[in-house]
Amino acid sequence: MKINTNSNTYTIIYACVVVIVVAFLLSFASSALSPKITANERIDKQKQILSSLGISVPQDQVESTYAATIVRDIIVNDKGEVVDTTGGFEIAIKEISADRLPFYECRVDTTTKYVIPLVGKGLWGTIWGYIAVDADCRTIYGAYFSHESETAGLGALMAEKPFQDEFKGKSLYDESGTVISVVKFGAKQDNPSMQCDGLSGATLTTNGITDMLRDYVGMYRQYLNKQSSTNQ
Amino acid sequence: MSQLFSKANRQVFATPLGLNHPVLVQVLGICSALAVTAKLEPAIVMGLSVTIITSFSNVAISLLRKTIPMRIRIIVQLVVVAALVTIVSLVLKAFAYDVSVQLSVYIGLIITNCILMGRLEAFAMMNGPWESFLDGIGNGIGYAYILVIIGGVRELFGAGTLLDHQIIPTSLYDAGYVNNGMMTMPAMAMILLGCVIWAQRALTKDEQK
After folding, report:
1. Is B95 on the interface with A (CB under 8 A)?
2. What is the pLDDT along chain B (209 residues), one digit of tens a residue?
3. Domain that holds residue B67
4. Where are the alpha helices (DSSP H) in chain A?
5. How many domains does chain B have?
6. Interchain CB distance below 8 Å, B97 and A41
């Protein structure tokens, strides 16, 4: 019997069968690979946090180094209260809000460091980063930035070492409430301890970084103040 | 066995590498060729992914070609390609996470790569699975080697490295050599691609037409 492949019934049945077969195939592939993908995403996030502390290790040592370095991952809010004493790491970068802020306490060569995450908008898409501060909660120990889709060779330079190293040793914020900012590349800096050279040709990306620093340091300030007075 | 590699079949494999090259002659798939070639590693992974997807989608469509209703054939082709692309993207996320982050949306955009739809429509719908497989591999490799050439040149002159290994010696940098930042921009990929097309046209001038 010859089937008429152009009849309506055949076309509809054919489309349904194809879609169902493909759906099965894809859900099988997805569920088979998802544990590995989640693990990769976890390791990637741990790598980013370690990178802000100036630690870079091979892929297979990331998890053990992270476990040895990060002492606590607590959740705080913008009023300076501790919401939860664990689980900060589980908050995805895009789910951070003023009443659920992850705060990492770390131990690097017997000194205590704190890491806070930052999220903002660059020119084309989301940008994010981690800032590590010393026990005084002011002096920047290291920074890590990354981005979704900034222009290669311009804004994308924010993810490279030379730019991130500029933050080292500067102060995150001061009593008057000024937060560290990124200024135009080469411009005269009136307050060098709180300003970083920007990226040439990427003014909008660096403005995004400045906004992100202002917003997030603003939210963390109460807790950082509290923490630094406990430490003294 | 000899039939599998007959003259006609070898031709099917070889023409997309030269006279009917998908990128150089048909000028298809340019967008991703410009976007992922700033470094060599993503260019290789992208080329490999496209080769796998073209060959297997060609085989799948070729096996189904007698059953596909004419009116929804493009949709069926798209579904097959999209399924393969999703699987490749999942595999990359599981086994080559860093590269998959670098390639970001471009793996997903293989679905819209004109080379794929072109080969499915023009070849797999009319030929057997083995010929279609060869055609897919040929077109994929044709696309991949252009990516590798452009990615290699851009990484070498833009960053002084190849596959992240320093190639240009530090003594040269001390002597005043600087990396060409222009190479890291997509515009430079366009110019390089133009040069490759020029060279290929000049070399095969007599065989064309």
Report:
1. yes
2. 556 777 778 877 877 777 778 877 777 878 777 878 888 888 888 899 899 999 999 999 999 888 888 888 889 999 999 999 999 989 988 888 888 887 767 788 888 888 888 888 888 888 889 989 999 999 999 889 889 999 999 988 888 888 878 888 888 888 888 888 788 778 888 899 899 888 888 887 776 65
3. 21-208
4. 8-52, 62-69, 161-165, 203-231
5. 1
6. yes
Q: Given A10, A18, A33, which is nearest B90 (Cβ)?
A: A33
Q: Name, in order, each residue with C-beta under 8 angstroms of B95's C-beta and a sequence gap of 6 or more.
A: A36
What is the reported pTM?
0.76
Q: How far apart are CA A24 and CA A42, in angstroms?
A: 27
* Interatomic CA distance for residues A9 and B72, integer angstroms: 13
Comparing CB atoms, the residue among A26, A29, A40 nearest residue B97 is: A40
- Which ranges constitute the DSSP H helices of A5-108? 8-52, 62-69
Q: Look at residue B29 and tell me if it is in a domain.
A: yes
The verdict on residue B7 lying in a domain is no
* B106: in domain: yes
Q: Does B96 touch chain A (CB under 8 A)?
A: no
Q: Do A22 and B83 touch (CB under 8 A)?
A: yes
Contacts 24+ apart (CB under 8 A), B152-157: B152/B40, B152/B43, B153/B183, B153/B192, B154/B37, B154/B38, B154/B39, B154/B183, B154/B184, B154/B188, B154/B189, B154/B192, B155/B38, B155/B39, B155/B40, B157/B183
Kindly list the domain boundaries of chain A, sorted by start residue.
51-231
